[in-house]
Every structure is written in structure tokens, then in C-alpha cells.
Design a protein that fits this description.
With about 100 residues, the chain is an alpha/beta fold. It contains three helices and four strands. It starts with 6 loop residues before the first helix and ends in a 6-residue tail after the last strand.
């Protein structure tokens, strides 16, 4: 759990770690679209991202085969669309806890 991690921290990580392939942001309650969009924009090699319980992402059909949904509300579909647009190698995304998807 990373409950105190902020968008600024994830944006800095994305900016300086462009070769990042896997990230677990489960239970990061303070994150918004800005953090996920920064990861999508700067880390095109992402293969796995865990957003379980991040409290955000609006309800719509999953964009990824195997995506799972549950409880969340700070991240929106814009973040998921950014991942789909920029991360061609993404094979695993955990959206459990994202009620608005």
C-alpha cells in the first residue's frame, strides 16, 4: 500500500524512469489522472500496472482483455485511454477498486 504517494511523486518517477515496465500503485488514494497519464506518456514500455483501490476511473467497458473492475473514484477514463494509446506492450492492468470505470 502506498497511501501517501502523490501525483507529483509518480510524475517524477515517470519522467526519470522511462524504461519502467511494471508498477504497483494499489491503494494509492491520492493519485489522479495526472499520475497515470504521466506514466502512459513517459513509460511506453509498461507491461503491467496495478491501480487496485486507487479510488478513481469512471464506469465504461474495459479497454483491455482481462481487466478487472471494482471500487474507485479519483482516476477517470482519460487515464485508461492514455494507457491504451501510449502503452502498446501493456498486457496486464488491475482496475479492481475503480468504481467509475
Amino acid at each position: 500500500s502506498c497511501r501517501n504517494i502523490t501525483d507529483a511523486a509518480v510524475i517524477a518517477l515517470a519522467t526519470h524512469c522511462a524504461n519502467l515496465t511494471t508498477i504497483n500503485l494499489s491503494w494509492c488514494f491520492n493519485l489522479t489522472d495526472a499520475a497515470v497519464i504521466a506514466l502512459a506518456t513517459h513509460c511506453a514500455n509498461l507491461t503491467t500496472i496495478d491501480l487496485h483501490g486507487c479510488r478513481g476511473v469512471p464506469h465504461q467497458p474495459p479497454l483491455f482483455r482481462g481487466a478487472r473492475q471494482h471500487y474507485s473514484d479519483n482516476i477517470t477514463d482519460a487515464a485508461v485511454i492514455a494507457l491504451a494509446t501510449h502503452c502498446a506492450n501493456l498486457t496486464s492492468i488491475n482496475l479492481i477498486g475503480c468504481l467509475k470505470l
